[in-house]
Amino acid sequence: MRKGEIKGRLDDALVAAWNVRQRLVYAAAPVALKQRLRANAHLRNAYRGHRCFILGNGPSLAQQDLTALAGEHTFVVNQFIRHPQAAVIDPTFYVMIDAKVEQGVWGTAFLEDIERQLPKVQVFATAAGRQYFDDRRVLTGHTVHTIHPELNFHFGFGGSCAPTGPMPCATNVTKAAFFLAAYLGFNPIYLLGIDGNGLIAQGNTHFYGRDASATTQAQFESDLMAMSMGLRGWRAIAAWSEQQGIDVFYANPAGIIEAFPRVRLEDVVSVVELPRCG
């Protein structure tokens, strides 16, 4: 067995132990939170037989014409509202789990832009994020679903991935969007703007610019390990999806993720979706 694979399996074991801890913590969570999460049960298979597109915010999005996604079911995340074609796409779902939301790091301007430009979008946010919306009186006219992404996905993941309780993925919003899409019954699922190489790529880390770089070698090493685990996580999701009978495709012209079959976005959207039976 290769050294990298040995380390990966050790990481999986540590992540599994962390998930046990998080489930124990959730057992003592407030009743109000559990009620809000159980309310998500009505979303199960609500979009069965339809395809969807999950858009990360990687720099590759700047290389694609996304206007063809208007009328499609789309998931967008975090700062996607900054994309010049956001209103044209009119996404179906908006997922935000980053602590920068409730900590006010990103402010409220981007939330007000969502409120104004995307009046129909349904929002998925953490309980803390939802409280921030309420306190700032933003997104008051939108449907906001509470989610609790406190677990991390890994090879051999056991338990539920449903948003009716603690769900994956605590550290990656596009992975959280993926599991929401799977729960809603979408199949196939197409991934865009999830490049996987933002830490080491030259130029921007997002379509709208570059995040601050690591300032110390120790921080850079930590970020590299996180990137490696993130890529491994997509490989684990690919294996899980195959077991679940969910077709996942990578419609990204520039990313480095090789866990899914690659397709060209223009080829996909040129084929009109037909409802599936069963």
In words, what does this structure look like?
The chain is an alpha/beta fold and 278 residues long. The protein has a single domain (3-269), classed as sialyltransferase cstii, chain A. It contains nine helices and eight strands. The chain has helices at residues 3-27, 31-38, 86-89, 99-102, 109-117, 127-136, 173-183, 217-244, 265-269, and strands at 52-55, 74-77, 93-96, 122-126, 144-151, 166-168, 189-192, 248-250. An eight-stranded parallel β-sheet has the order 6-5-4-3-2-1-7-8. The longest helix has 28 residues, at 217-244. It is globular, with a radius of gyration of 18 Å. The termini are far apart.
CATH architecture classification name: Alpha-Beta Complex
The tally of structural domains comes to 1
What is the CATH topology assignment?
sialyltransferase cstii, chain A
Shape: globular
**Top-tier CATH class:** Alpha Beta
Q: Which structural class should the secondary elements be placed in?
A: alpha/beta
Average pLDDT rating:
90
Strands side by side in the biggest sheet: 6-5-4-3-2-1-7-8
What share of the residues does DSSP label as strand, in percent? 5-15%
Task: List the uncertain runs.
Answer: none
| Amount of helix | 25-40%
Q: Biggest sheet: strands, sense, closure?
A: 8 strands, parallel
State the separation between the terminal residues, measured CA to CA: 42 Å
By DSSP, the count of extended strands is 8
With helices defined by DSSP (H or I, 4 residues minimum), what is the helix count?
9
Radius of gyration: 18 Å
Order of helices and strands: HHEEHEHHEHEEHEHEH
